[in-house]
Write a structure and sequence with these properties.
2 copies of one chain form a homodimer. Chain A has helices at residues 58-72, 88-93, 109-118, 120-123, 138-143, 170-179, 197-208, 260-266, 271-274; strands at 3-10, 13-27, 32-38, 42-47, 50-54, 78-83, 101-105, 131-133, 150-156, 180-189, 213-220, 228-235. With 281 residues, the first copy, chain A, is α/β, with parallel strands linked by helices.
């Protein structure tokens, strides 16, 4: 079979993945949800023909979205995951013994349903008794969550076009600050400096208008456009100095990308990336 | 114009780049040498339809191939670049005031000729009086270079299939050790842990059989297959402890990816990469 799936990553950039099988392809109320068996990167979840995650590199994104916030927060008991219906982020959050409650606010329940059928490695923690599903608009959920109701908020959303647009603006960050407990932490994926420098600047500026402590860190996700993937992180007072100091107790288990040392290294920005975080930029 | 250039990165993986123009396309004695004007990543040099370098990310590869070795070496006066006919590595080497002589041993003179016409940002240092062109087989040159004739050897070669195969084996590393001065350093690109873990293991094992100090570091190059790109580094005795301690004087000028801090962070390996460097693996 010579079947190729192609993502138009930018108007001038394509990723092509040869597929052994189309495992599922359906239209939900929001988007096309599909899982392909690719030859190179294992099974892949695609939403509207964009890679969301593949078995070969999902661990990078999910470990690096979850563990920095959870190892910085003094007592991460209550965690909100906005988006993240594939379950990968929840799986990593549940590895922290301190976590008592994980709310998963995914807009599209079909994403979770499809992943349960074909990507069980991602959804393995969704039946953890600490996990609570709250299907719907994560921004609306956050706005009504009540002051101080979460210690960590992780935004695991697709690109800020279409349904996820409301998760990348000042209004959302203000709601996150309100919903966070003192010392709480917000992390959002913020795309690639090779292709989306303007978005990174915009997210950093909007976060700094709302939070007193904001930073950027990164990891490499080969199937994402530009491959060098950033995460924007913000913290609500009070916090110690330095505000990015990790708790001594690391999460238990084996990690493939994350380690306490990798986390520290991830905040070291190449100059062309650091320039995107500067206040006057 | 809807013209797409495609690299078959692996049998199941393709990179597609939309091109505004084909600037040059010719067959040399060794390979097809071409330069395209891509919409997303600027001008691109391709050899046999594989990306060698693009204007948008060449700085990552060239800065990270050159500066670690040159800042670790106590007195990097004499540098050999094997391959690297596009000039990018020589450009970075020439930023070090300590360098007195740079030998460029590129197999295919057409690569340099084509880059001089279309990628002047890469070739800008090729007329530096310290640079000496030695066209031909870099492995043969190294074998005849004489004991202790170089302080740093940088292998800037394509994938270890075809002409560059001889640059990734035990015989080459033995010749490099002989040609290096005491305390001298060898660096070779060693591809991506997402796609070429076996090559990384093989290079690390072969280097460890020849050198007492071997390590791996990495950077992100979005147009290379797997994007997470490794460099294998080895050092000939004597050297201080730690053998990866940088000289206090950094090279002058502005860098886009490299910094002393980025260099240290680049040696922090995610666990799935570190596993490739373990002796018993």
């Amino acid at each position: 079979m010579n079947l190729w799936w192609t993502e138009q990553q930018t108007p001038g950039l394509r990723l092509g993945l040869k597929c052994a099988a189309v495992l599922e392809q359906r239209r939900s109320a929001y988007q096309e949800v599909a899982v392909y068996a690719t030859d190179t990167y294992g099974r892949m979840l695609a939403l509207d023909d964009m890679v969301m995650t593949t078995e070969a590199d999902e661990f990078v994104y999910h470990e690096m979205l979850a563990h920095p916030a959870l190892t910085l927060c003094a007592d991460p008991r209550r965690v909100l995951v906005v988006g993240g219906g594939d379950g990968g982020t929840v799986r990593e959050v549940c590895r922290h013994a301190a976590v008592r409650r994980v709310v998963l606010a995914e807009l599209d329940p079909e994403v979770t349903a499809v992943c349960r059928r074909h990507l069980a490695g991602l959804t393995s923690a969704l039946d953890d008794p600490r996990v609570e599903n709250v299907p719907g608009d994560g921004a609306a959920y956050l706005a009504g969550a009540g002051a101080g109701s979460f210690d960590v908020v992780l935004v695991d959303a697709p690109d800020p076009i279409g349904p996820a647009e409301g998760l990348f603006g000042a209004e959302f960050y203000a709601a996150a600050r309100e919903a966070l407990a003192p010392g709480g932490i917000l992390v959002t994926q913020s795309e690639s400096p090779f292709l989306h420098g303007d978005l990174i600047r915009r997210v950093q500026v909007a976060m700094r208008a709302t939070f007193p402590a904001v930073a950027l860190y990164w990891a490499v996700v080969p199937t994402y456009p530009g491959a060098m993937w950033t995460f924007s992180i913000a913290r609500k007072p009070p916090f110690g100095d330095p505000w990015l100091a990790q708790r001594p107790a690391a999460p238990a288990g084996d990690f493939r990308y994350w380690s306490p040392q990798v986390q520290r290294a991830a905040f070291v920005l190449p100059p062309f990336v650091g320039a995107l975080t500067e206040a006057d930029s």
